[in-house]
Fold this sequence. Notes:
With 175 residues, this protein is mainly alpha-helical.
Amino acid sequence: MDISFLAQLTVVGKIALAMLLSAFVGYEREVKDRPAGLRTHMLVGGGMTMFTAISDYLIYHMILVFSPDKVSITPDRIIQSVLTGIGFLGAGTILKVTAPKGGEKVHGLTTAATILFVAGIGICVGAEGYYIAVGATLLALFVLRGVDSLERRIGTKRRKEIPASADQPVEKSEE
């Protein structure tokens, strides 16, 4: 498989764009001192771009070497496999901690969601969906910043503890 220098440079540019877009989301998590911050989000977004872009080249190469009817790999299968690993990474950010009043709190759900989301941004950039990637980044920032301040303003921010007693209803903390 011989990928031209210009094609490889283009992929590196795509990775840089995905890392930049993911950095905006990661910065918001970093400022809030969450388990996964700037570097993690940048690497996830850039990594997904790399996997998406290289899967296109792999499939193209397989079609050139073998006949198209013998190639059974598709980009969505590669992306699906990598997203499974992203799920494990996100799960590692979710923590259940004991609250000062004796109950428990769940932290990291939003951070896990942002890790999955920046993976999607990386896929969009890798598949050359640049406007989708930029729009998705702006939407994520709106959800993380705009909705957070709206929740505080109207007083609906859910930060309730999970009761210590098993017979009481369980409520989760958003983040």
